[in-house]
Design goal:
The structure holds 4 protein chains of 4 kinds. Chain C is an all-alpha fold. In chain C, about 85% of the residues lie in helices and about 0% in strands. In chain C, helix 1 packs antiparallel against helix 2 and helix 2 runs antiparallel to helix 3. The longest helix of chain C is centred in the last third of the chain and has 29 residues. Chain D is about 75% helix and about 0% strand. Chain D is built from 12 helices and no strands. The chains are: A mainly alpha, B mainly alpha, C mainly alpha, D mainly alpha.
């Protein structure tokens, strides 16, 4: 049981991931799908960073009086992933804007309806 | 316990009290115009007191200088944001809250 | 000890601002709550830095938060003005 | 103490995420997303990842939120509640979540120093990087030296995404009448005039101090871009396009990537491996430092130029009727 409770942060991360996934799958609005993707993404980042935490560890900036540091490797991976994430998000948002201009709507159902009508 | 520690502690506790008061006001007051009264003032004051307390605690170092830089930025920006929000509300919302309209949801 | 109390008060303030942002009801209430939330988060980070014992590393993040919070709030207000996000649904005809 | 703080932040994050998917007012959804990113950044701070927190706060709470708001201005504010059956997505999500939860049972516990992730490479970086790279900030050492090849790929991705957005929305051209300046609100104008030089100075500090404290090219580029975005918001897109002309932005976008890759080719010409900075100067540690400064500069320039041009592309567009 104790072992179980020590995993609670994974449950929270999985819950947040699934919240984002639900917004992506169930929402019909394209902008909301993008927000959902970002929520999903941020929770994945949290999963990685939580793997690098070391009990009693310090920020991985070397200092003579400190001996235990947290793991810097996940930090590097996630740091670049965040910036790449916003780059892809901006691309998705640009697509949303173009879809709005071409179809007059950003609701998925309406877009499908217009496609079928043509 | 030195005098400086006491002063910094008192400043920080007073700041925390102001921040809490403002938050309660934000939560309980009915609409944005009234909430600005609670938050706009107490946030700036509470932030100032807490950062001053921390700066005294840090002593005469680069850290204290950086804390004072944060304070300077916040003293410039927080009232600006509050003012801009209040101005936007007063311009775009035709019916401000009046006494007797009931409480916030 | 004092740092712990201050951090707790700031966390409570963050929570209250968050609840206001969740409840709304209108756009302006949310914007105001978000701006207040940003400031409390920034202070919370600074205090956490002191608790963790290496405040120098954390203070840069606080400066960043202050700057970013100002810019995003100006952007939000500009968006309200430019996009006409002034009314709320229940008040629209 | 840490556990309590983490639990409180987790509760707030769950509330925010649920609100973000429940609300139909997309403007409120974007504000919720901004709060969610700030909470995530606070979480990273509590988990000792200061560099990541700096990036998350600048990028997601700042730039991503501003871009979403710009998109919102160009599209619709209200989401139409769809008539579709929601049970199938819910079932899919629950099933995926159950599988993931089953997977977490074998995961190491929080803060375990002997977990596989924290034993092999991490200890090498922490013990050997002072002798091999010589910088206090291990994150910068790994980012710009040990894993520089990977980082070059990331910068190329950012560059490509910027080119993609420009191809989709068209580069902002001055005189086309994008978003007008904030003429009728003098207070933000005056404060912005004071703040913009401060922000640019802070960006330079983050850029150059990244070797010793949290920071580096990615964060500095985003902060610099944020200063220009503030200028564009307050004084109008046309004025910002005069400060930094779009043609110059294109040169900066490519120049940063070329500076990064060029550093690699110079090290090859000097007889080292690609992006092996030891050969740049006689002293390997000084060479590492020089290489890292150059590479970080390239990252900063590209990121700043991409973010500014993406924002100008969004803001220079008019709402479709």
């Amino acid at each position: 049981m104790k072992e179980f409770l020590l995993h609670y942060h994974y449950w929270v991360v999985v819950f947040l991931m699934m919240t984002g996934l639900y917004a992506v799958v169930a929402s019909g609005n394209l902008l909301k799908k993008v927000v959902g993707l970002n929520v999903f993404q941020a929770s994945v980042f949290m999963l990685y960073i939580s793997l690098g935490v070391v009990d009693g560890g310090a920020v991985p900036i070397l200092r003579p009086e400190v001996t235990v540091y947290s793991n810097p490797l996940p930090h590097v991976l996630i740091l670049t992933a965040i910036v790449v994430g916003v780059a892809t998000t901006s691309l998705a948002l640009a697509l949303v804007v173009r879809i709005k201009e071409a179809y007059g709507t950003v609701e998925e159902d309406d877009i499908h309806r217009r496609d079928e009508a043509e | 316990m030195s005098i400086l520690e006491v002063v910094s502690g008192v400043l920080m506790l007073a700041g925390a009290l102001f921040v809490l008061t403002g938050s309660v006001g934000l939560l309980r007051l009915p609409d944005a115009l009234t909430q600005v009264h609670a938050v706009g003032i107490t946030d700036t004051l509470g932030v100032g007191l807490i950062i001053l307390g921390l700066a005294i605690r840090a002593g005469p170092t680069l850290l204290a200088l950086k804390l004072l830089l944060i304070l300077a930025i916040l003293v410039l920006t927080t009232p600006t944001t509050s003012h801009a929000i209040a101005r936007a509300v007063s311009r775009y919302r035709s019916r401000p809250w009046k006494d007797g309209q009931g409480r916030a949801p | 000890m004092i740092l712990g109390i201050v951090a707790g008060a700031l966390l409570a303030g963050m929570g209250m601002a968050l609840i206001r942002a969740l409840r709304g009801p209108g756009a302006f209430e949310r914007v105001l709550a978000a701006s207040s939330f940003n400031i409390k988060t920034l202070l919370f980070i600074t205090v956490i830095g002191f608790v963790a014992g290496s405040p120098v590393d954390y203070v840069d993040i606080s400066i960043m938060y202050a700057v970013i919070s100002f810019i995003s709030m100006v952007a939000v207000l500009r968006c309200i003005e430019h996009g006409g996000f002034t009314g709320d649904r229940d008040k629209e005809p | 103490m840490t556990d309590l703080v983490l639990a409180a932040l987790f509760v707030m994050m769950i509330m925010t995420a649920l609100a973000a998917i429940r609300l139909t007012d997309l403007f409120a959804v974007v504000i919720m997303f901004s709060i969610y990113s700030l909470l995530a950044a606070s979480m990273f701070v509590v988990m000792d990842a200061v560099d990541v927190a700096l990036t998350e706060a600048a990028v997601d709470a700042g730039i991503a939120t501003i871009l979403m708001l710009a998109t919102l201005v160009l599209t619709d504010r209200w989401e139409r509640p769809s008539a579709r059956l929601r049970m199938v997505p819910l079932a899919v999500v629950c099933l995926t979540g159950a599988v993931l939860l089953y997977g977490t049972l074998d995961m190491p516990i929080f803060g375990d120093a002997s977990s596989p992730a924290n034993t092999h490479l991490a200890t090498y970086y922490l013990t050997e990087s002072p002798g091999e790279v010589g910088l206090p900030n291990v994150v910068t050492s790994v980012l710009a030296s040990y894993r520089a090849y990977d980082t070059l790929g990331e910068v190329a991705v950012i560059f490509t995404a910027g080119v993609g957005v420009l191809a989709l929305l068209g580069a902002a051209r001055s005189g086309r009448g994008g978003a007008a300046p904030m003429r009728d609100n003098p207070v933000p104008r005056v404060i912005a005039k004071i703040m913009i030089p401060l922000i640019i100075l802070f960006a330079l500090y983050v850029q150059l101090h990244g070797d010793f404290g949290p920071g580096g090219g990615f964060q500095a580029g985003v902060i610099f871009a944020a200063a220009i975005i503030l200028y564009a918001i307050v004084f109008g897109v046309d004025a910002a396009a005069q400060v930094i002309p779009p043609a110059g932005l294109k040169v900066m976008m490519t120049g940063g990537v070329l500076l990064f890759a060029g550093t690699g080719f110079v090290t090859m010409a000097l007889g080292g491996a690609f992006l092996d900075y030891d050969v740049l100067v006689r002293d390997p540690l000084a060479g590492q430092h020089l290489g890292i400064v150059l590479v970080e500069l390239g990252i900063g320039i590209t990121v700043a130029a991409v973010v500014i041009s993406v924002f100008l592309a969004f803001a220079g567009r008019r709402r479709a009727r």
